[in-house]
Amino acid sequence: MAGEYRVCAEILKKGYLASITMGNLKGADIHIVTEQRKVIVVEVKTTCSTRFVTSFYQKYKTKNTVHPDIWVLCQIRNENDRFFILTHEEMSKVQAKRNGFLEQFDWDEVNKKCQFGVDNVLLNDILEYENAWEIIGNFA
Questions:
Q1: Residue 48 neighbours by CB distance under 10 Å
Q2: What pTM was computed for the model?
């Protein structure tokens, strides 16, 4: 929850209307409401280390499974928290690559191989997405 609050605060500081969702069966961590009243769904993953547990292909079994629009991976560090912002499609590619697949991959093939275990990505896998907050604007 600390990561969700931290990410939500950062989104609010950027001028967006954002709210954390509550409940045991929630489908998203944060909702951003744009000026046009469009809702952007955000999934947050937080770590104090360099490994983010995503459970990506265990949760999103097909390309059409309902999914978040944006992923924010937050590394909590004493005073210098880091944020990595990816679209769902970008996250699928990063996770597939981490799982040993090439950039062009078949979703079903990746899912079959990855249905057991728990997907994760490492900090080095996502460095290019650090502070890519403009992704929110692209959805808005």
A1: 12
A2: 0.91
